[in-house]
Amino acid sequence: MDPPCDLKDLTGHFEEVICRTPPERLAASEPGIRCLLAAAQLSPADLLRDPSLSPECLVLAFQRRFFRNEAYEELLVHRCEQDLRKWFGDWRVPSDWREDLLQALHLHLFSKALVKFDPAVGSFTPWLKQVAYHFWCGELRRIRPTVPLELVPEQAERCPSPPEQAVAEECRVLVEQAVEELPECQRTALRGAAEGKSADEVSREMGVEKASAYRWLFRGRREVERRLGLRGVVEP
pLDDT tens for residues 161-176? Predict the structure, then answer.
């Protein structure tokens, strides 16, 4: 049989490898597919971007560590992030919380939740919506443990008193010291976010993939929280 030579053939070959190759043998198949992609002047991203690849197939690739990072980015960043943002709006997540929530959810999916999805049981999008909603509810309870799930109304702004201003300045200095001690990638990403830049803008300015910017922002924030005694453990 001739080797697959165009994107359609390569996509079919990829699906067959993912679905039929025993997991313990998948690692040995990856170099061969990379060679086929190179011969066709295609990248793994070109292959995974093919809309004929189902979300369930991309989840299997992630779970079986076959083009793992590329599969996650295609599925959760390129295909599903717009849905996640829409759901956040439907659930009345405050607009200034959404970027942080999205980054935290990405890390939760990448490090814990996505390996639990079973493509044989159901479709991916309803599962993702349920996971995202439960994660949002958990974050809301963590941030405001005494408040029911309905969001509290915004309070009228007032001028802080001199003691409050002094405490705020002390907190600002402590946060800046904690940020200064972070690895350069996390420090640069956090300072970009503090200037009001989106994850897209941060990733472009740093010359990295959007998923990397999300990861650095999340880890940087969690490390700052740990250094300030607000969180016990930094998630991997």
Answer: 666 666 667 777 777 8
